[in-house]
Amino acid sequence: MVRVPKLTRADATAALRNPLAFIAARWTPTTRTVRRAALAALVMSVVIVVTGGAVRLTGSGLGCPTWPKCTDDSLTATREMGLHGVIEFGNRMLTYVLCAAVGWAIIAARAQKPWRRSLTRLGWAQFWVVMSNAVLGGIVVLVGLNPYTVAAHFLATTALITVAALMWQRTREGDGEARPLVGKAVRQLVWCLIAASVLLIMVGTVVTGAGPHAGDSSDVPRMPVDWETVSKVHAVLAWIVVTLTFALWFVLKAVDAPRGPLNRTRDLFLILLAQGVIGYVQYFTDLPELLVALHMLGSCLVWIAVVRVTLSLRERPTDTPTDAPAPQEYAATSASMAGPR
Description:
- This protein has 11 helices and 2 strands; from the N terminus they run ααααααβααααβα.
- The chain is mainly alpha-helical.
- The protein starts with 8 loop residues before the first helix and ends with a helix.
């Protein structure tokens, strides 16, 4: 058996003063562990979007009519509140699971040797976005599911997904200076793709705010725009994103770009096609709840794919050893670009 070292008073004091440094001095996670921790935070960021959508689609948005308590007299849902209270309170509890996942990512990044400050900062950025969005979620309840606050709540979660995806990617890279793998014209095309994707997501929140799924009852206010018109604008933007993605793939092929950007662009194109099919089917079938939930999941996956396409256009040399040898193709690419500096 492995003997557990005794915890002295000095150790306890050090742990209270700086818990992360205390853990880092006694535990060194593998690179794979750090990657898994970052991926767990990203997955939970997506899960919280889907469960938040379930709250709205089941009409449970005011299942807990106040915040931070569930009722004025109870911190948790009561039996009298029925299923809606359970669903809304359960979604609130998942925020703690999300915090745990983000916390694990922060601890793993801080304990990694050598310490990469950039990863730790990305972990803390996720933490503060989660805390801010939790407060915003409470405001959503207090203002009776005002559609503008609901839209802001979703956009804040999209920001969280962005930072989580960035941290996950950075766990696979070093901290060297970023080096572009494609030319300036290709990068400008990707910025157009990003702008169109952001606009697509923002208009999607307007579709939600004007649509029939208010989140609770018919008394919940909706955005004063024609839902079908906004839906058509949303569809046009989706086709623009698809066209830009196909154009990007074609250009990358033409300039003989590395496999990374090509593969990420292909993934984005396939996700967009699946998302488009779901979008059209839900539109012509009067928005069944299950398809709307799948469309929300697809929205998260589309944005993650866009972020991955953007990050694939450059590489950062890896100075720290990894747990497994890098693929031969990537190792050759890095070696050819990592000349004397």
